[in-house]
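A.,

Following up on our hallway conversation. Structure tokens first:
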């Protein structure tokens, strides 16, 4: 996202509102990088360019869900966890943001596991409105008590004491 945002040609296309070239570049990168979505957000917060115009409403919801002013984060939209990364496009003043998203699903977690230098099993869990936890493959109610304790303690901002668990949950 940062490389595209700093690309002179791309920032010139943004400044001149060359929608066709912008959307072509986004679509190309989406396919090459294996992204879920690639889009542009204008300085007013509206989606001004997207790889697939049919998903503009979804993109707007994701941008809104990202904590204001953040350039990266994880958001939940429709029960799916997504990772977003945004980079400002300057030409030379702020002209908007280029945003890439990917699903934080089992496929993405396996890719993370393959990159790890240590044995790792990665998973994403989301807290439901009723306080329960649900993951991509299972829900945390079935996990052992040590895992639940680790997550609940971390969410309270307390450093958890050392416990023996079969797997580690990253928050």
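Then the amino acids I'd put at each of the 171 positions:
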């Amino acid at each position: 996202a940062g490389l595209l945002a700093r690309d002179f040609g791309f920032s010139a296309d943004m400044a001149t509102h060359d929608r066709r070239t912008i959307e072509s570049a986004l679509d190309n990168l989406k396919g090459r990088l294996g992204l879920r979505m690639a889009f542009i957000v204008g300085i007013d917060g509206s989606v001004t360019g997207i790889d697939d115009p049919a998903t503009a409403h979804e993109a707007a919801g994701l941008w809104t869900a990202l904590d204001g002013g953040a350039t990266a984060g994880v958001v939940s939209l429709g029960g799916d966890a997504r990772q977003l990364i945004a980079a400002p496009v300057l030409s030379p003043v702020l002209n908007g943001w280029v945003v890439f998203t990917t699903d934080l699903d089992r496929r993405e977690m396996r890719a993370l596991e393959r990159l790890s230098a240590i044995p790792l099993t990665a998973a994403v869990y989301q807290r439901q409105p009723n306080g329960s936890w649900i993951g991509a493959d299972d829900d945390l109610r079935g996990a052992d008590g040590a895992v639940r304790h680790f997550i609940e303690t971390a969410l309270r901002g307390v450093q958890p004491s050392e416990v023996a668990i079969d797997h580690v949950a990253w928050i």
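Residues 45 and 136 are 30 Å apart (CA to CA). Curious whether your intuition agrees with the design.

B.
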